[in-house]
Each structure stands twice: as C-alpha cells, then as structure tokens.
Design a protein that fits this description.
The structure is a single chain. The protein is of the alpha/beta class. The chain folds into 4 domains: about 200 residues, Rossmann fold; about 190 residues, 3-Layer(aba) Sandwich (Rossmann fold); about 100 residues, Arc Repressor Mutant, subunit A (Orthogonal Bundle), CATH 1.10.10.10; about 80 residues, Orthogonal Bundle (DNA polymerase, domain 1), CATH 1.10.150.80. The protein is about 50% helix and about 10% strand. It is built from 29 helices and 17 strands. Strands 3-4-2-5-6-1-7 form a 7-stranded parallel sheet, sandwiched between helices. It is globular and about 90 Å long. The two termini are about 50 Å apart. About 45% of the residues are buried. Adenosine-5'-diphosphate (ADP) binds next to helix 3.
C-alpha cells in the first residue's frame, strides 16, 4: 500500500499543487484502491472530491461520478479541466450529439472522470455494463437516496441497481449531511453492506460564529451594514425568511450603494441563473436569498454569511453557514435573533406536518442562539461530536457575557405581566415597564398600573433581551396560540415572591460585532492559517488579474485560483516560473497557464514598492 500512498501524493502535487492530504482523504483513497466500497461523510469544504478524483487518476479506466445538480457538475468539470485533468459531463443541457461524442471519448479511454445525472446513467447502463472499463462509481450527495434525508430524490433510488450490474466496481457514496438513519439507509439502498464508513470531523474552525440578539428595524440594518463594511468587496450571502424580505433587503442595500441582488424561488429561472452566475464570477458581491439559494454553489471564496433571522433548525443553519470559507481561509458568520423570530418560526412549526419534531428542533436552535457557553461546542454536540475545549472563534468565547443579579429586573417584568392578568404580549409589557405614552396604553388604563414606568432606566432593546432570557430560563412562557401573550411559570412565581434569585447575562449593545473577530485579529498580526503575512495591496492586484484571466477563459475566478492561493502568492512573491510552480495550489497545468501573468504582476509590484 505504500505504493498507493506515494502515487496518490505525487498526483496530488502534480495536478492540484497540494502537498498533503486533509484528514481521512488518504484512508478513503486506499480503501477504494483495495476495491472496497466506502461511505464518506465530510463537512462542506472537507475535501470530498479529492477522495474519488485521485483514485480515478491512478487507476486504469474511467471513474463515473453521479451528481444530482447540473451546476455542480459543470463546476467540478471546470475545476478538473483547469488542472489539466480530462473530465467531462453528460447531461440534458448539452446536445445529444455532444453527449455521444463524450461517451465515445470515454470508450476510447480519453476521459478519466465522467459526471452524469442518475437518470441518464440508468438509461446508459445496459450498453456500458459489458465493455466499458469503469474504475470506480462515486455517488455525490448520496443522502438524496434516502427518504430519511432532507433532500430525497426519487431518481436516486434506482441507483440500487448499480452493485448488481457492476459487482466488481467499488462504489463510493459521499455526503455532507447524514444522520445515522440516513447513513444506514445509504448502505442498504446501494447494497454495499461491507462498505467502510468514514466520518470526518464536522468542525469548521475557520468559520467564526456570531449571534446578535434583539435588534430590530434600523438598529439591525446598522449592525448589518457595519458587518458588511468589514468585508469590503468580499462575496457574501444574506439569508432572509421570506421572499418579500429578500426583495426589501436587496433593494435597501442597492440604494446604499452595495453590489447586491435578490434570489428566491419566485424569480424567473433565467434571472436566477444569471444572478447565480454573476455571483460565481464575482460580478455580484452580495446575494440576498431565501434558503433556496446555495444548493449547487461550490464557490470557494464566499467570505461571509448572514442570517437576517433565526433559522428553523441547526441542520439548515450549519449547511448555510458552511457555504462560507470552503477554501479553508477565515470566514465570518452572523445570525440575528429576536423574539419575533421565535414567534414566527413557532407558528410555522406548529402548522407543519411534523409539529413535535419541528418544535423540538426550533428549541435547540434557540438554545444555541441564547448560549452562554462556547457556541461551537453546542453546535458540534448537536451533531454528536465533542469539542475538547472552547473554540476561541465565537462571540461567546471572545466576549464572555457578564453575569448580573437579575432578580429585581425579573420581578418588575413579572409584576407587569401579573397586573395585566397575563393577557398581553412582549411589546405592551415593555411599554408598560418603560412608561410609554402610546395612546393604546392609556386607553387600556395601563398608565395607572403600579408597575407603569418602573423600568424606565432600561432601553426597549434591554427589556427585550431580558424578557427573552427569562423565556429561555423558564421564568415566563409564551402562549403562542393566544396572540403570544406572556405567562408566568411556577418558577417565575417563586421569583416574583422573592423566594429565588436569578442571574442574567448583562445586555451590551452591539456586543458581538463591535469587537474584532479572531480572524481579524489573526490577520492584523499576520497570523493566517497558512501563516502568511498579508499584503492587501498586492492581493487586490492579484484579484484583479484573476478576474481578468477568468473572464477571458469564461470560468469563475475561484476556478483559476482560490483566495488562499492568491494569499500565498502575495506572501511568497514568486518572480520565476520555478518559484511559482512550487506554490500551494499551483499544479503543472496552472504553472504553464499562469506563471507569466502572475509573476509579471508580482515583479511590477516589487518595482513600484521597493523596500
Ligand atoms: P467538499 O466537496 O467536501 O465540500 P471540496 O472537494 O470541494 O470539498 O474541497 C474543498 C476545497 O478544499 C477545494 O478548494 C479543494 O481544492 C481543497 N482541498 C481539498 N483537498 C485538499 C488538500 N489535501 N489540500 C489542500 N486543499 C485541498
Ligand atoms: Zn467558542
């Protein structure tokens, strides 16, 4: 096997310009080179593609890759071809004549990787089984085969025939999302009972995790703009709950001069495709989208993701933030979370077919949002993984909340709730506490209550935050079916009657985004994961060059080089072909194609900026 390992490493260097494997990649490669089936679970960005691409390159014959999405196929084929690897796709967007040509090429042994949709594969099977030299069958997004998964595709279920038709060909099933049930189902459906299971860590330490609570309207927009401005010119995605919110958000950002566009399922297909393409090509910087956006997006240089509202569950949340930082460089995520989000999502959950499950999932999401301990620990434990220590890259780790004695605060709120006979929602309760002069407060005689105005010294946002914590701690409850009226629990009654004390986390406006993230601190100190001092000026030059080169070739800029490679070029400043060829992410093909342009840019920069 030493031989396989050496070959694999040589191919990794030659075609991809990488000098070591990510965790588990080599084990997977060895497994299928021993002609054993494999199930591979890796998070987004974990490097799944290499797991089947390297075996394809060191084996005789052609590797078949089953992929459900046309956009993904195209992206992968582009990336492979850019590295000089003979790859092609057969699909319905190409002419039949072209598809036949591709298949002839496969027969002739000129193609190492063939991407194909499941339905197409099944129609071709009969003719192939006999005489095509197939080295491996890789099934991407394998969770689509299971009814238990969140993205079941009927056409995937017919892949169960593969093992029978190609008993000698190893099958590799890959996915980024599969719980145990789905995993077992994949094995069963594909008839690969002896498959080795590879489960990589789902930790993505390069993603910063930030949650901002209780901001609404203008405050929220201001916080968002501050966050975006810290990522000037960098690609990012803003997820909103509804189509209407998507439109509004995009409109507002555009008016403020940002290069933003909306994306949601209600838009015409051609428009959606254009938006997506422009985003991939760095012609649009910010996408405002419903969760419909992202499937099929392999763009490696998404630098940030914002959730403008709390997501419905942790699975969705993790998948969506996972679209940032695929290249392994630091990326920032921010989630806004408010009381009204919880109310809205709760009503969605109640109306959904599976209320119990969905409500429980929402609760877990809420616990994450309210966390007083390292968020990454909570996130990973949700996915059954244990982190040994605090991550140091979430808002809780970086700015631990200050604990205060909240007994009096709680008593004021509880007393207000009691005096309106538990018949009001959060806004009215806060209005009473703050002594609001709104007409409806006086109309209902609330200005004569004993608690009217007792909480004047706290802002609306502060009360909102403390009531949310009270909810989280089980001091109050929300009657979701009765206009979200606040109710006092038994625990709350004890507090109201001074039988218990409560600790709360002190509210600090802007807490999590006024301070620098770990990524920013690291950047300032010149400490990046790849240990390169950053030269912003040179990097932005290189980005311009990358953009121009990509336009000329008709591929997205990240296919030419990832952000990480540009940072390495900026750090190493190669001026010769030899120096350029040894860099991270620069294989033989890219050396030939790009060394002249990029070393010339470096040389010019050095001339203009002598030490
Ligand atoms: P996934 O499909 O699991 O989301 P990809 O296969 O797209 O991940 O890989 C994510 C990124 O990491 C790609 O840019 C890929 O080139 C890069 N990558 C994969 N393996 C390695 C490695 N061993 N060394 C450096 N970069 C790698
Ligand atoms: Zn943390």
């Amino acid at each position: 096997m030493e031989n396989v390992r050496q070959k694999a490493l040589a191919v990794l260097k030659r075609f991809y310009g990488y000098s070591s494997f990510y965790p588990m990649q080599l084990d997977v490669i060895e497994c299928v080179m021993n002609r054993r089936d494999a199930v591979v679970l890796m998070p987004t960005g974990g490097g799944k593609s290499i797991c089947f691409q390297i075996p394809a390159l060191i084996s005789e014959g052609c590797t078949i890759v089953v992929s459900p999405l046309l956009a993904l196929m195209k992206d992968q084929v582009d990336a492979l071809q850019a590295n000089g690897i003979p790859a092609a796709a057969v699909n319905s967007t190409q002419s039949e004549a072209y598809n036949r040509e591709v298949i002839d090429e496969v027969y002739a042994g000129h193609i190492k990787l063939l991407y194909i949709s499941p339905e197409r594969l099944l129609t071709e099977l009969d003719t192939w089984a006999a005489d095509m030299n197939i080295s491996l069958i890789a099934i991407d997004e394998a969770h689509c085969i299971s009814q238990w998964g969140h993205d079941f595709r009927p056409e995937y279920s017919r892949l169960s025939q593969l093992k029978q038709r190609f008993p000698k060909v190893p099958i590799m099933a890959l996915t980024a999302t599969a719980d145990r049930l789905t995993r077992d189902d994949i094995v069963k459906q594909l008839h690969i009972p002896d498959a080795r299971m590879f489960i990589a860590s789902f930790n993505r330490p390069n993603l910063s995790l930030n949650v901002v609570r209780n901001l609404s309207g203008k405050d929220k927009m201001r916080a968002l703009v501050r966050f975006i401005d810290r990522h000037k010119g960098q690609s990012g995605i803003i997820y909103c709950l509804s189509r209407a919110n998507v439109e509004k958000m995009a409109q507002q950002l555009k008016q403020m001069g940002y290069n933003a566009a909306p994306f949601h399922a209600g838009m015409a297909t051609a428009v959606k495709e254009k938006v997506q393409r422009d985003f991939l090509n760095d012609d649009i910087t910010i996408i405002c989208a419903t969760i419909a956006f992202g499937m099929g997006i392999n763009k490696s240089n998404v630098r940030w993701v914002v959730h403008s509202n709390m997501p419905r569950n942790m699975e969705g949340y993790y998948q969506e933030i996972g679209r940032a930082g695929r290249d392994g460089l630091p990326a920032d995520t921010l989630m806004f979370y408010s009381f009204s989000d919880v109310a809205t999502l709760m009503s969605f959950a109640k109306e959904s077919g599976q209320a119990t499950v969905n409500i429980e999932k929402l609760r877990r999401m809420q616990q994450y949002a309210e966390a007083g301990v390292c968020r990454r620990r909570i996130l990973l434990s949700y996915f059954n993984e244990r982190l040994e220590c605090d991550c140091g890259n979430c808002d809780v780790c970086l700015n631990p909340p200050e604990r205060i004695d909240g007994t009096v605060i709680c008593q004021m709120a509880l007393s207000a709730i009691a005096r309106v006979n538990q018949q009001e929602g959060i806004t009215t309760i806060i209005d009473i506490l703050r002594g609001s002069r709104k007409a409806e407060i006086a109309a209902r005689g609330y200005d004569r209550l004993k608690t009217y105005g007792v909480g004047r010294n706290l802002s609306f946002a502060e009360w909102n935050a403390y009531l949310l914590q009270m909810l989280q701690l089980g001091i109050i409850d929300v009657a979701y079916e009765e206009a979200n009226h606040l109710r006092i629990t038994d625990y709350g009654r004890d507090i109201l009657h001074s039988m218990r004390q409560v600790q709360l986390s002190k509210f600090e406006y802007d807490r999590s985004f006024s301070k620098k993230t770990k990524a920013e601190k690291a950047k300032e100190q010149g400490r990046l994961p790849v240990d390169v001092p950053v030269n912003e000026k040179l990097i932005s030059r290189l980005k311009e060059l990358r953009y121009a080169v990509a336009k000329k070739q008709g591929v997205p800029p990240y296919i030419v080089f990832s952000d990480r490679v540009l940072e390495v070029i900026a750090a190493e400043k190669p001026v010769t072909k030899a120096a350029f060829s040894t860099l991270y992410g620069v294989g033989e093909r890219k050396t030939e194609l790009y060394w002249e342009a990029f070393t010339a840019a470096v040389r010019k920069f050095l001339e203009e900026n002598p030490r």
